[in-house]
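Need the bound structure for 3-methyl-2-oxobutanoic acid, inputs here:
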Amino acid sequence: MAQNTVYIRIFDTTLRDGEQTPGVSLSIDEKLEIARQLDMLRVDVIEAGSPMSSEGEKEAVKTIAKAGLNAEICGLARTTKEDIDAAIQCDVDSVHTFISASDIQIKHALNLTREQVLKSAVEAVEYIKAHGLVCEFSPMDATRADMSFLKELCKAAEEAGADRINIPDTVGVMTPWTMRKLIEDLKAVLKVHISVHCHDDFGMAVANSLAGVEAGATQVHVTVNGLGERAGNAALEEVVMALHSIYKYRTGINTSLLYSTSKLVSRLTGVPVQPNKAIVGENAFSHKSGIHTRGVTVEPLTFEPITPELVGQKRRLEAGKLAGKQGIKAQLEEAGIHPNKEQLKAIVKRVKELGDKGKIVTDADLMAIARAVMGEVIAEEKIVVLRDLTVVTGINTVPMASVKLTIDGKEYTSAETGVGPVDAAIKAIQKVTSNLADIRLSEYRLEALTGGSDAVAEVLVKVEDKNGNVVSARAVNEDIVRASVEAMIEGINRCLLKKRALRK
Ligand code: KIV
Ligand code: ZN
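Answer from helper R.:
Posting the output first, comments after.
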């Protein structure tokens, strides 16, 4: 598709509609930090707040307006002189003024008539323009308004001097088709720039915004992470990337900052980003199934519409029961780990076993499994092999472990008590193997790799024989006792093999 030269303005309302998200309240410093980030992102307009709503809010808008940012700084105001004056006193570049256009709101929220609404809108626009400021006018709830009144109101605002008319889908009831039709009809009677402001009550805010653009809107109201009143507004990152990548339209946005901006806003507002959120979610560029991980390893475009770097993200390959050999290999190689064929087979087997048990295998888990597998004594060379393990522990029970081992093919069993099940199991192993070699545990370290009671545990041990030879070994398992026992047996095998090799 050829590059479309149409430029779409991005009007960011994270600091105004976004702050209307239930539970969100930002300090002046936090608002300024977000404004600076939005400026680096290169949005065209930053709606910094509603100056009339509180002294703190007025201070925040004033601080942002004086911060020397490149973006147009806008303040929201109802169509009253008090509201507009409060915005003007903040030294903003533009005022976004709004009044209800739908009969339901005119009657029940404002207790006015259509004529009064018309008059108030015209006076507000004229007042803003008389102060030399850019004026954006919004007929609130436009999408539920009577069409002829909506046209009359928008026309009157345009004639009064409004620079832009913004069409809010205040309760998110549009579909892409109805939005397209509405904007086409308004475009036929208006000369000024048309903007769209879509809410996400039915999950269609982004689609409706894009439909508005298809019909000729040249500005879109958005918020980072789709924050906003109720179900939120159209998400900045989704609108922008769809405009760039699907429509081939231009915006001023530096897309490589989308992920970091999302992170910052999430941290400061305390609203987490769902993992499967488009563009900025943690899963947006994560691949799991074998077919997908193999595909993106060879050619990312096989299963990615855009490269993660374009939006400041990273590709993640997740290991699990659906993982394929090539994906796991690529993931390990990226971390500088190069298993041979047999080792890779063993790693994949361990990953799938964990996945079958419902465990999510994180990057750290995979690396630990690889380290353990690649350090393991190969099966044919093992002198000591664990055949069975039973542990008993409790508050009124002395911890006890019994083990069944084969040493050079001969079976031995032993049981011991200890301060805990790990201690008991290791003592039981030592009891059997002491006949073979006097090996003691000189160091033991346990690391739980991922949170949760089913975390994969990595145990690192150092064992020492009576001649002072020290070897280290590691094992990973979701069961801490098993990981400990396997690490100990691995250490004993290494010690014995070393001794036998020296004797030859
Ligand atoms: O959703 C809405 O209608 C608004 C107006 C203030 C434009 O946020
Ligand atoms: Zn809104």
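Comments: The radius of gyration is 33 Å. The domain at 9-269 is CATH 3.20.20.70 (TIM Barrel).
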